[in-house]
Amino acid sequence: MEKSHTITYQLVDDWAELNSTDQEMINQAYSACENAYAPYSKFKVGASVLMNNGQVVIGSNQENLAYPSGLCAERVALFAVGANYPNEPIATLYIVAKGDLLPFDKTLAPCGGCRQVMAESETRQNQPYRVVLVSQNRKTLIFNTAKDLLPFSFGSD
Ligand code: THU
To answer: Is the entire prediction scored with pTM above 0.90?
Structure first.
C-alpha cells in the first residue's frame, strides 16, 4: 500500500509583512538571541513562545565546553514553558538566528532533537501550535502544527 504525507506551510518573503503580534514576537526572539551563550559556534539562536494567555517565554542556545552538554534555543524555551507554565497551551513558537554558521539565505530550521521535543509538547497540550521560522535574509516559513516538522516522530501514531 502506497501512502503519502503532505505538508502545507506559508512562505513570506519578509517578516515585515506579518501582523504586529508576529512581528513583536520575532523582535522578542531577536532580543533573546542577545543572551545566547555561543562562544564555540558563534551562532546565536533565539526562540520566543507566545502562550494562549498572551504570556511570553524566551530561550536562547546555551553552549558548553563539553559540547554535547549545551542546549538549543528552542529546547531551552520549551522546557522553560514546561517548568513554569505546564498547563498553559502554546499558541506560537518563533525561532530566529544570527551568525555565519549558516549562509545568510539558508532557511533556518530546527534540528531533529528540537523537533522531537516540539512534537511532544504539542501532544502534551492536546492542540497544535504554530511554528514561525525566520531566516537571516528575513524569509519566513510558517507551519500550522509543530508535528508537520517531524512526521513519524518517536512515539507518534
Ligand atoms: N542550535 C539551536 O539553538 N537550535 C537549533 O535548532 C539548531 C542549532 C544551536 C546549537 C549550537 O549552540 C549552535 O546553534 C550551532 O549549532
So the answer is: yes
